[in-house]
Design brief:
Elements (H helix, E strand, L loop, with lengths): L9 H12 L9 E5 L3 H7 L4 H22 L3 E8 L7 H24 L2 E6 L7 H13 L6 E9 L1 H17 L10 H6 L11 E4 L18 E4 L9 H12 L9 H8 L1
Parallel strand pairs: 1-2, 1-5, 2-4, 3-4, 5-6
Helix pairs in contact: 2-3, 3-4, 4-5
The protein binds 3-methylbut-3-enyl trihydrogen diphosphate (2 copies) and magnesium ion.
């Protein structure tokens, strides 16, 4: 597999070192969500088929997961295949499913070496039997890992997840377990695919597109957005550091005034 690797010269290495040093380890995001976009364009720029870009995106996944775990981030969620992506040409969908099978299987050892647990959100039932099988196996084999949870969003969309939660809540109402008047935001959150997954503090999207494409719609109500011009296969550890540093320079007010936030810092 061709990987866009180039060795770093001394000044680049120092720059990289400085970048990681400027991250405030006490104010790390717990959960980083990423829309991995731009694989097709990356391949097309090289005169290759789109699937070549998807293959080269795997290295970016490795680097990002490793960097996040090393820093102490507890959860990352990677948007790998959306509900809408089923509408792509059959050959591309098939190639993506095949790539998932190979990658999930091939990464189990690295996930275990790094103490990372693999999990999934999305309409898993719609995935091919082979993907489901590899996923189940990888989730089982990494279930005891505690350093970081890596969520893959597969056959996922935010509206699908909200709809799924509504159906579950409605069923409880129908069974007489719940009074509609008593439904709270917390209850809705508890019916999402992974109720223990906290809302992401940052959502990163690569490839210079400024939209969230139906990703984590419920959970990103107050998430900080970071848009990178890099195409996903070019995304590296330093790009993640840059997004975290940018996030750490923002003031999150949650509807309050700046003065209230500053005063509370004491
Ligand atoms: C993201 O890259 C990967 C998936 C959506 C599966 P794209 O395939 O969307 O690449 P572009 O946006 O067409 O360049
Ligand atoms: C979003 O990328 C989905 C994933 C990254 C899996 P798309 O490339 O499918 O998004 P749109 O359709 O351009 O918004
Ligand atoms: Mg795209």
């Amino acid at each position: 597999m061709a990987v866009n690797s180039k060795s770093l010269n001394l000044s680049e290495m120092m720059e990289k070192e400085n970048l990681i040093d400027t991250i405030d380890k006490c104010r790390l995001p717990k959960h980083i969500a990423i829309i991995m976009d731009g694989n097709g364009r990356w391949a097309q720029q090289r005169g290759e088929q789109r699937v070549f870009g998807h293959h080269n995106g795997v290295q970016a996944v490795r680097e990002t997961a490793e960097a996040a775990a090393e820093l102490g981030v507890k959860f990352i969620t990677l948007y790998a295949f959306s509900t809408e992506n089923w509408n792509r040409p059959k050959e591309e969908v098939d190639a993506l499913m095949q790539l998932l099978v190979i990658t999930i299987n091939g990464e189990i050892k690295t996930l275990n070496d790094n103490n990372i647990r693999l999990r999934v959100i999305g309409n898993v039932q719609d995935l091919t039997p082979q993907v489901k099988k590899e996923l189940e196996e990888a989730m089982e084999k990494t279930a005891g890992n505690t350093r970081m949870d890596l969520f893959l969003a597969l056959s996922y969309s935010g509206r699908w997840e909200i709809l799924d939660a509504i159906k579950k809540v409605a069923a409880e109402v129908k069974e007489g377990k719940l009074d509609p008047e008593q439904i709270t935001e917390k209850m809705v959150s508890d019916h999402m695919n992974a109720p223990d997954l906290p809302d992401p503090e940052i959502l990163i999207r690569t490839s210079g597109e400024y939209r969230t494409s139906n990703f984590l719609m419920w959970q990103t109500a107050y998430t900080e957005l970071f848009f990178s011009p890099k195409l996903w296969p070019d995304f590296r550890k330093e790009d993640l550091y840059e997004a975290i540093i940018d996030f750490q320079h923002r003031e999150r007010r949650f509807g309050k005034t700046s003065e209230q936030i500053i005063n509370c810092k004491g």
